[in-house]
Amino acid sequence: MGSIQRQASSGSDGSAGTIDERKRKRMLSNRESARRSRMRKQKQLEDLTGEVSRLQIAITQIQQSINAKEQAYMQVESTNNVMRAQAMELTDRLRSLNSVLQIVEDVSGLAVDIPEIPDPLLKPWQLAYPIQPIAASADMYLN
């Protein structure tokens, strides 16, 4: 009977040792798994931080480009306003000259060819002036 108890007790001691060994291995495995998980999260955080930095740089570049385009637009708009004012002034001068020609025609009796002044505001798609080529360079579109 003593031998049976010894086998049972030695078996239970061996089982306890096996259980302790399994528990220790599981704890080590869990620690390693947690360490890998922390490393993955750290890498994800670094990747996202890098992406944020790249996106912020891209946003800054886009904002600078927008500002440059807005300045160019404002310059073109200003030039257009000046040219519109000049066109109106020249049209008024032409009307005055045409009225002088009309008076000369009436007084002298000579037939004078007085051209009609088209109104660019009524028909903006019909140019009142001869088409002149506009010199442009490729670098003006790169800004």
UniProtKB/TrEMBL annotation:
Subcellular location as annotated: Nucleus
GO terms, molecular function: DNA-binding transcription factor activity; protein heterodimerization activity; transcription cis-regulatory region binding
Keyword terms of this UniProt record: DNA-binding, Nucleus, Transcription, Transcription regulation
Gene Ontology CC: one annotated term: nucleus
Keyword Transcription found: yes
Record bears the keyword Signal: no
Domain BZIP residues, every copy: 20-83
Biased composition (Polar residues): 1-15
Chief site of localization: nucleus
GO BP terms, alphabetized: positive regulation of DNA-templated transcription
Annotated Gene3D superfamilies: 1.20.5.170
Chain segments carrying region Disordered: 1-46
Protein name: Basic-leucine zipper transcription factor
Organism expressing this protein natively: Trema orientale (Charcoal tree)
Gene: TorBZIP25
